Amino acid sequence: MLNVSEGRNHEVIDAISLAAGLSLRDQHSDRAHNRSVFTLIDYPDELRRNVHALITAAMKRLDLRDHHGVHPRFGVIDVVPFVALDPRHDLEAEILRNEAAMFIAKTFDVPVFLYGRLADGTRRSLPDVRRNAFSTLAPDFGPREAHPARGASAVGARGVLVAWNLWLRGVSLGEANDIVKAIRSPEVRALAFAIGDFAQISCNLIKPGAVGPSRVYDQVRSLLRSGTIDHAELVGLVPQEVLDNEDRERWEQLGLSAQATIESRLV
After folding, report:
1. Tens digits of residue pLDDT in 202-218
2. How far apart are alpha carbons 253 and 161 in whole angstroms?
3. What's the CATH class of domain 162-266?
């Protein structure tokens, strides 16, 4: 799921999607966030080629100085995670991560921060990068300062997660932030945003097998002091296992469907 800082210019988004080739399995764009998420799945050689092509297409067309959106970002190519769908291939994901990081730094003169398991065996999370980049954390590749137009990039190797949003109606940003603080855990990362008439709670479900969408949905609903949950929104794709763990009668309420699984896009 490559996170690119453009969610409004359809001509640019289409060009970036085209560059991703046959590896592209899903594309999700959000105007308020001004951000697009491109999900690429393929064998290593094809994936490497198409990821590099997508990055090149975005870097050539986008300028961070022209970017405005509610979602925090620090680069045109903001986040590039490599995910082994089978944990036995975690090392391959780390190799692809390192290759992509070096490609970004060398080709575009952009500082790159790694996350996931590092060469010394320690682990660094994406929130660690966002919190400490350019202060206590120096880039792993590239220049020491952000590129004026392209910013910086975070490139990682991680497990499967579910990116998933709840849209709340009649709820203030302050109340949404209180809810976010209550639901955060090692299994759930969350941020709150004000978007038009809505408050949005944007979640990454880090261990969706342990804490899935219904559990977070019900927790948020129980914490509401006012307003309602208008709808849920899946960003990208979800493992079939997550659907299997949920009551089928709740799939629509949770923003899930059989057509949005990883497995359905690999047929």
Report:
1. 999 999 999 999 999 99
2. 19
3. alpha beta
